[in-house]
Amino acid sequence: MTVADIKKTAEGKMAKSVESYKSELQKIRTGRAHPGLLDQVHVDYYGSMVPISQVANVALIDARTISVQPWEKGMGPKIEKAIRESDLGLNPSSQGDLLRVPMPALTEERRKDLTKVVRHASEDAKVAVRNLRRDGNEQLKRLLKDKAISEDDERRAQDEVQKLTDRTIAEIDRLTQAKEAEILAV
Fold this sequence. Notes:
This protein is α+β, with helices and mostly antiparallel strands. The protein is built from four helices and six strands. The chain is 58% helix and 16% strand.
């Protein structure tokens, strides 16, 4: 493994960490409805737990209401129960085959709780990035120990890995601030 391989691997994994963090942020609701909100809700489908999107059409009726149209007649009550029991705080209403899921307005207290959740997710993402930096630095030290690179090359490569880490953490901070502003906007 070369220095370039180590940097490329670290960069790729850090990019994946940022993508994972972005998907985590999308799960945190802000009062506006979006179909991806129900992706984490699973429903019992003939003995196996599957995401709602695999047993129903999930679409937006308007900015504050999601519609769920089950593909099979008997799935409506099961989907309704799964949404109600999820930790999203949603209360679906049934209209024949169609389920309407209105988004309740966020209270000030709930907004502050959501910003705490965002900060916690941000810290988890930063820890993952720092762990990747540590792994990269350990690989560089191994190369130095095996005399595959010089001390100067190792020091230069560690500086580049650190700069990559700093850029990635700055990106996570930017995403966090944007999400907090979105949550706190009334």
